[in-house]
UniProtKB/TrEMBL annotation:
The chain crosses the membrane at residues 21-44, 64-92, 113-137, 143-163, 203-227, 247-269. The complex is composed of two ATP-binding proteins (CysA), two transmembrane proteins (CysT and CysW) and a solute-binding protein (CysP). This is Sulfate ABC transporter permease subunit CysW. It comes from Pseudooceanicola spongiae. SUPFAM superfamilies: MetI-like. Its main location: membrane.
């Protein structure tokens, strides 16, 4: 027995320990310079004249209008894209049909098209001289330079996030659990609620968080289709640009700090939910 060599698992990496320390340190330094330093600079500039000046800059009609519009667009766009992305991922991962590759390519389309081009396309479709412009004018409907246009632009640019997080998870899980539930007499809706949805809830949550962050921070497509009408079609990112161009740096950075705080709050909620349900998350990953 003593002649049998003991099995020792190989190291994950073959680099020497000093090399790994140097690589890790470089990565941490670059992360701090590229992510933490700009974030700290935004908050520092916002508080340059004190907290009172920053709060006063946010307590204006234009600022409140931008905040309300940004939250309104996110509240509408994120649930819609979550539902559409969940349905698209379900169809792609659970069924075989003609045109599946085309559907996947269409889901990835917003990743390959510039947001500015997307906004311009919506203007060409729904503008006064666009394809549907005459019909909209005849029915006294307005899309371009109005909230519906901003919503359409946001839906387009945020469409892939939920579906792209769910498709790999659903494909890896396969169909066996759903088929077993149906065999035991479960209805389609009951099977979806008790089998499918619990298995993908963390991927769905992550996709929703990414979708929400992009919806609140989208600039290119919204800037084209909104017309930047102050107090009416200015979201928070657009108002930041307008204030900065007017040399109102404290107001611009205060709005940017608020937008960053909303993003950090989203990440905090995600971390709290993962910590609160750590056991369920670990069981799902093992499964």
């Amino acid at each position: 027995m003593s002649d049998i060599p003991l099995y020792r698992p190989a190291d994950v990496t073959t680099e020497a320990r000093p090399a790994r320390i140097v690589i890790t340190s470089v990565i941490l330094i670059l992360t701090a310079l590229l992510l933490l330093a700009p974030l700290a600079a935004v908050f520092a500039e916002a508080l340059r004249d004190g907290l009172g000046a920053s709060l006063a800059a946010l307590n204006t009609p234009d600022a409140w209008a931008a905040i309300r519009l940004t939250l309104l667009i996110s509240v509408i766009a994120v649930p819609l894209n979550a539902a559409i992305g969940l349905a698209a991922a379900w169809a792609i991962a659970k069924f075989d049909f003609r045109g599946k590759a085309i559907l996947i390519s269409l889901i990835d389309l917003p990743f390959s098209v510039s947001p500015v081009v997307a906004g311009l396309s919506l203007v060409l479709l729904f503008g006064s001289s666009g394809w549907f412009g005459a019909w909209l004018s005849a029915h006294d409907l307005r899309v371009v330079f109005a909230v519906p246009g901003i919503l359409l632009a946001t839906l387009f640019v945020t469409f892939p996030f939920v579906a792209r997080e769910l498709i790999p998870v659903m494909s890896e899980q396969g169909r066996s659990e759903e088929e077993a539930a149906l065999t035991l007499g479960a209805t389609g809706w009951y099977m979806f609620r008790t089998v499918t949805l619990p298995n993908v809830r963390w991927a769905l949550l992550y996709g929703v968080l990414l979708c929400n962050a992009r919806a609140m921070g989208e600039f290119g497509a919204v800037a084209v289709i909104s017309g930047k009408i102050r107090g009416q079609t200015t979201t928070m990112p657009i108002l930041i640009e307008m204030l900065y161009n007017e040399y109102l740096s404290v107001a611009a950075f205060s709005m940017a700090a608020l937008l960053a705080a909303l993003a950090l709050l989203t990440l905090l909620l995600k971390s709290l939910m993962e910590w609160r349900h750590a056991d369920l998350l670990a069981a799902t990953r093992r499964h």
